[in-house]
Structures
1.
Amino acid sequence: MATTTAEIKRTPATEQVLGAALNLFTEQGFFNTSIPDIVKASSVSTGSIYHYFRDKEGIARSLYETLVERMESSFSEIEATHATAHDRCRAAIALLFELTEQEPAVMRFMLFSRHKEFIPDQKPVCSSRPFVQMREMVVAGMESGEVREMTPIVAASAVFGGALRLIQLRLDGILDAPLPDYLDEIWQCAWRSVAV
Amino acid sequence: MATTTAEIKRTPATEQVLGAALNLFTEQGFFNTSIPDIVKASSVSTGSIYHYFRDKEGIARSLYETLVERMESSFSEIEATHATAHDRCRAAIALLFELTEQEPAVMRFMLFSRHKEFIPDQKPVCSSRPFVQMREMVVAGMESGEVREMTPIVAASAVFGGALRLIQLRLDGILDAPLPDYLDEIWQCAWRSVAV
DNA sequence: AAGACTAGAATGAACATTCGTTCTAGTCAA
DNA sequence: TTGACTAGAACGAATGTTCATTCTAGTCTT
């Protein structure tokens, strides 16, 4: 029930394909990346690719699901290891910043790809589970009295909007220093904007 | 000098094409939109389209430049009619909210299209003139003592990040009410996050 | 030897772009 | 005023390429 439309057997070959596709998609875009490109970059033949994946879209879908699941479980861990909304939200931002630095392609794929554009019927990124979790952290803060009363989605945007914007700027090459350098500053702003 | 790589003569026919292309690009994406699609939607023939525009990319480029110029002059007007950083930033957000409601396609094109993906050599949206202007509003506020001292780009992200996120949510169909309904709330958060 | 996997050539559809032609409106000559 | 001439605007069928996908012939693995 929790699961995915496109379950894919994990083998070294599929990992090769997914890794190559992630890089190509985020560097040149989905439509500028041809199957021959992926064949070259992954050293997996056309036949094998179509043995494992239904079609090109299936590769993107599988990628998307893998990455969403990964973020989802990271956020769940944060919920498990931090008690207050304050700590949870801060940890979430710190995690996103780390991920952006260590695997920019993952973050770029999650945030920038207009999924509806090339994955028909794909719900928008911002309503995927991890982003719902972020919203829930803020709402919990409102219930516990840490966060002032207001429209939940507005509060969530206030808390995470600044950080997400910095991530975008970093990925677009506007920011030179690594994101964690800005964590304290942006977090102070974020929390001040909603704290009671 | 201020101008554009792809100057296009403005005629009824080109307006037709640009209008149709804007809608199609933002609804289905650049790569899912074929020239025949644009021909049908604009009632302008293939030959004429290629008479006015170098190629499909030229249409997108022309669209982008038109929209950027339009936002740029709106922001300049805000700078001319509002004195304080507080008023300018608030007016900027109000303007973006209005534009999103009245012409979602314009906003969608400006914010979401991964321009580098289909317009090679296109600098990222977030370093286009209007976004620089937004940053300058915040910096001016720091100089006038309205905004607390901090890294300029972080301050700008804090002020505008929440609003931009709401715009994204609205365009992705997550928000039901029109954006101006949220203006007061998000602005309070935004300003509180950086005010001295 | 059977099944899973790999390979890469072959296929056919879709598409951006070109090109030769037609149309339109303006200008000029008589 | 009429008719000839011109320039550029508009047209859309034809072209050639690209690319996702399929197919056939193998090669491992157990």
Note: Confidence is low (pLDDT under 50) at residues 1-5 of chain A.
2.
Amino acid sequence: MSLRKEILEVSKEILIKDGFGKMSMRKIAGRCGVSATSIYLHFKNKDDLLLALIEESIENLKQALMEVLDPAKSMIDQLEVLARTYISYALEHPQEYEVIYMVRPEEMPKYPKEKFRDVRSAYELLADIIRKGKREESLDVESSLISAYTLWAQLHGVVSVILNKRLDTRIPQDQFIEQAIDHIIKGFVIQKTPA
Amino acid sequence: MSLRKEILEVSKEILIKDGFGKMSMRKIAGRCGVSATSIYLHFKNKDDLLLALIEESIENLKQALMEVLDPAKSMIDQLEVLARTYISYALEHPQEYEVIYMVRPEEMPKYPKEKFRDVRSAYELLADIIRKGKREESLDVESSLISAYTLWAQLHGVVSVILNKRLDTRIPQDQFIEQAIDHIIKGFVIQKTPA
DNA sequence: GAACAGAGGTTAACAGTGTTAAGTAAACTT
DNA sequence: AAGTTTACTTAACACTGTTAACCTCTGTTC
């Protein structure tokens, strides 16, 4: 196996097990049986390595979402199962999920550009469902793509509150998730308010 | 002025100007004219200092929210202006906002307990509006407190996507915010679906 | 075959980090 | 006056990401 791939695997292993704080270049290198500087032959710097990990993590999340997609179901049902899956996945793979939103902007000024086509495709996945829902008039949106991002943002918010332990101790996590999904989905479906 | 207070002020100054990454103990100490170790006489460690900053930041955010509260308006309108204010505040004070959600869980295992009454009171602020909306049957919620957390989470998600520069370059930020607020608010108002 | 170029690694070092242990000097208490 | 406490200091430990310089093996070209 190439060292590059081994670095990625080991990094991810450390990341998932011990969190980002413990993921040092020397530790990664040590576990690969090489010196720390060798990593710099395969990655520009730590952020660059992190970027590769982010891509992987998003790809995995996207995969998890795709697996629960069921064209037989209604768009609303699909949206709900996607929301549920997103949250479950994030809570079951907290360390990996955190990577996705961890790298701070100042450390990576020119984020998208060529890379991150996978990332976009993950959003397109949601946008597609929403677009279909819009066509069959079960969903109430203006721009499907923007709504996809909105949905994603809302889900991330819910996950973030839980992972960062910001949830009130009085509130049962399950109940919070259920109510959050309710609110989020309701925000997307057609409102048939009688004149 | 007490050194403790000066440390807090200087920390915040550095944090807002240069971001968390540049906020080192030695730098704070240097700018206070003392040695780095002095900080440990007033704060248990860096996380502890950060916690104090988080409290302050949340208090400021809460203050900004309280200022736009207007009992004359409908609950739905108030909810909307709160949402708008939350997002604006976060985007206008990005470094300060980031503090609120930055400290990672593993670094602070026992978060709430005695402290953070202010934090809770910020949520209660939202919960109050929601509770009133529920009473006058303009809002559709089960638990007001949980819905308050849900609203907060959703708003944080929207902000987070923008601050972390995860928004698609094709999407105008303003339009994203507008559509997000629409979806979020809609998720809370009563749905009068005709049987 | 000899000379060269580059790939893929090395060690040593720099400048920085959070944090602790031990020491000091002034102020308060008895 | 002696002792204790308070608020600080310096020195050091064990790390961090990153760079410069060096080495060694491989493949290519004359």
Note: The mean pLDDT of chain B is 89.
